[in-house]
Amino acid sequence: MGLLEGKIALVTGAGTGIGKEAALLLAKDGATVILTGRRIAPLEEVAALVEAAGGKAFAKSLDIESRSDIFAAVEWVKESLGPVDVLVNNAGSASKVLNARFLSEEEWNSTINVNLTAVFNLTQAVLPGMIAKGEGTIITVSSLAVLNPNLLGGAAYGAAKAGVKNFMTFLHNTYRNQGIRATTILPGETDTPIMNNRARPPLDSERAIMLSPHDVARAIALCASLQKGAVIPELHICPTFMRDTSADIEVARWVGAPADTPDMPET
Question: Sorted alphabetically, which keywords does the UniProt record give (predicted)?
């Protein structure tokens, strides 16, 4: 019997990268996994992998910037399968413009909505069921950008990930005696599709020394599968080798800058 046998786990951003790998591991441990994301096709592919390995998975498209969609999805899970036992807040996005000097309010708000507000809404949707059962696990993938904010992730991303770390600590301090475990995982650079959106996409040789999505997924699975009397409030995971990111940062500095910016270097 798996360590998560009989549990229901909802994973956001489950179609690729960390979310996909986490879903596969949670299902392997016995959980019924609800795979959510914007695009249904990748979710269905992951569901097929889970089922081929003998697990149970359901694919459900979800707009995590919509509070009503979130509550409807959690209600569907409750009515169809039962209340969510494990929530993995993995979905995230970074703004295209990274420098606070040029970042638009629209991009700021969208980044905050995906990385922070959606976590609040998902948490609020699952908390009543967890409190009623006297147990539940909420795991959020933040970032080491919380500790070292810079132009790699950008102003909005770093602020959102710091906010979500604070929110998870609030949950830990407030609900632990009601059986709710809140965990923040702070990964360093991870070779996921989001890297393709960087101002300077990393070279293959640079990706090779980053964390793999499976590394972070193993940390998620560990935190989810501990016996209910144990919790890991915060877990840092970073690449062994530190790479030189100075070229990335210099490119990112000028993304979105008006052409007549006086101090912008010539290209």
Answer: Oxidoreductase
